[in-house]
Design a protein that fits this description.
Blueprint (H helix, E strand, L loop, with lengths): L6 E3 L1 H13 L3 E5 L4 E6 L2 E7 L4 E4 L3 E4 L4 E8 L2 E8 L2 E9 L11 H5 L7 H27 L4 E5 L5 H5 L14 E3 L9 H10 L3 E5 L1 H6 L1 H4 L1 H7 L4
Parallel strand pairs: 7-10, 10-11
Antiparallel strand pairs: 1-12, 2-3, 3-4, 4-12, 5-6, 7-8, 8-9
Amino acid sequence: MNIPQARIINRQFAEELLSDSIKKDFTLIFDPKKHQLRIEDNQEWLAKIYLPWTINWSEGAGLADNSDSHFSLALIRAGQAVTGYFHQGVLMDHKVFRAYMVRQKQGKSQIKHLKTKGKSRAGSRIRLAETNQFFEEINERLTSYADQYPIDFWGISCAKTMWPFYFSSAIAPPFSPKSNNLIEVPFHISQASFEELKTSGELVQKFHLIFSEKGKTVMPSFGGEEQESMNNENW
């Protein structure tokens, strides 16, 4: 599990890369929707750095530890989901949800089935009811986090086909699709399990670096294979 085309680097490497970019008059652009720094030269991106969710960025202070970080993850797949609350990078609470919303023979969710066959049959109605309850229970748990903790980031992994149903749930999530602190998890989740929740929580606390082809050329000391091998973290 990793961000496509990205490699994990340590903080020292990230700070050296940013310092070198400033010396070369490259532009640093922060994207809060991805919690990502983009290094550009004449509006052409050279590198992207996904920042740990336990670290903040500002033009004045640069990278700074968040000594009291709070974030939550919601990994949602058809029929199974898991939510988690992290304080200072430590998983403090989690819950797994399951629902009967996948048609056994066709292997597709009731949501996808609604677009073609409708919901007239009893089995379809049961799956639809389970789907509604599924999203309500997820949002109820996330709302409990919002009520108790000052959440810095909400992370979500959910197929876009489910978004209209998820965000129109009778119990709304404690964020909207346009919230600045809602981040779509940038790596693939195969199963919404406790194990993948723990792994995802570890991954969002690391620096991830992607170079463009031009970036590898203009910053060879940071983009070469030898440097990558030296700075990759084996998590």
